[in-house]
Design brief:
- By secondary structure, this protein is mainly β.
- Helix content is about 5%, strand content about 40%.
- The chain contains 3 helices and 22 strands.
- The protein has an 11-stranded mixed beta sheet.
- The longest helix has 7 residues.
- The chain is elongated, with a radius of gyration of 19 Å.
- This is L,D-TPase catalytic domain-containing protein.
- Keywords: Acyltransferase, Cell membrane, Cell shape, Cell wall biogenesis/degradation, Lipoprotein, Membrane, Palmitate, Peptidoglycan synthesis, Signal, Transferase.
Length: about 280
């Protein structure tokens, strides 16, 4: 995991080389080598060129696990390839990925320039289920209830996505501006605490110090999942501080009973919303 001076942590994407001449390509991947991640974390590769020979490229990426589990790849468009098992990973699984892309023709006259081994480990099993109807989130560790937290989700017209979402980025404090997600000037909060990204389109589970009595009672957000917090995020005992400190990249957050559709599998690291039959088709 990468952390900067502000405590911003993300599923770091790494490339073996940053200079990409027109006739070569590399894969920019997450998680990073040596990472410990939650049970929902796929191995996701973005290629620097569109791939027209997907079978050859996929064949050049091999994944071994201890204990052994069947892992399969799925293409999203021509430049993203995600790998996952049929069910969430088991805690303690060690995953070794070999990117053997050197000399592999990804498209006519464009060859891979990357030979890299990446290993990562699966941490404890944490899956949290948000119920938009009861305004509660049940956090489970290793299948047992760990904590129940009052929450608020998207208000009518701004409903939160349903489905299985994977934490892909963690920020102790961040700015959230409605302009960046198509909501114009409806909000601009410069110091949102304890924010964890669930989709590329801007869904977070985050601390909220302005929500008043919404938590556990009614849905009041623009689509994010809000947990009570204090300004600045200094109190680690409040729900948002506690949840942030007990989460990691790759943890799963499931949303149910919201009035929106299920999140798209490629909107974030959310391929779990696709059946195994479709995944391997």
């Amino acid at each position: 995991m990468a952390k900067d001076a502000d405590g911003h942590e993300s599923a770091e994407e790494s490339a073996f080389t940053t200079l990409t001449p027109k006739n070569t390509f590399v894969g920019i991947y997450t998680p990073d080598n040596g990472a410990k991640v939650g049970v929902g974390m796929p191995f996701s590769v973005h290629f620097t060129r569109g791939i027209t020979h997907p079978e050859d490229v996929e064949k050049a990426i091999t994944i071994k696990t201890e204990p052994a589990v069947d892992v399969k790849g799925h293409w999203f468009g021509n430049d993203r390839l995600d790998f996952r098992p049929q069910e969430y990973w088991k805690s303690g699984t060690k995953v070794t990925v070999n990117l053997n892309l050197d000399g592999v023709e990804g498209r006519p006259g464009v060859y891979g320039k990357q030979a890299k081994t990446v290993t990562f480990t699966i941490g404890r099993d944490q899956v949290s289920t948000v119920d938009a109807k009861t305004h509660k989130m049940v956090v489970k560790r290793d299948g047992k209830v760990y904590k129940t937290i009052p929450i608020t989700t998207g208000k009518p017209g701004y409903d939160t996505w349903n489905g299985q979402m994977v934490i892909s980025e963690r920020l102790r404090v961040t700015r959230m501006n409605g302009e960046t997600v198509g909501y114009g000037g409806e909000y601009d909060i410069k110091d949102v605490p304890d924010a964890q990204r669930l989709t590329n389109s801007g869904t977070f589970i985050h601390g909220n110090y302005w929500g008043g009595g919404a938590f556990g009672n009614y849905n009041a957000s623009h689509g994010c999942i809000g947990l009570r917090d204090v300004r600045g995020g200094g109190d680690r005992s409040v729900p948002a501080g506690w949840f942030f400190d007990h989460s990691m990249i790759g943890d799963v957050v499931i949303v149910k009973n919201s009035h929106d559709r299920t999140v798209a599998p490629d909107n974030g690291l959310n391929g779990w919303n696709m059946s195994w039959e479709k995944w391997i088709a």
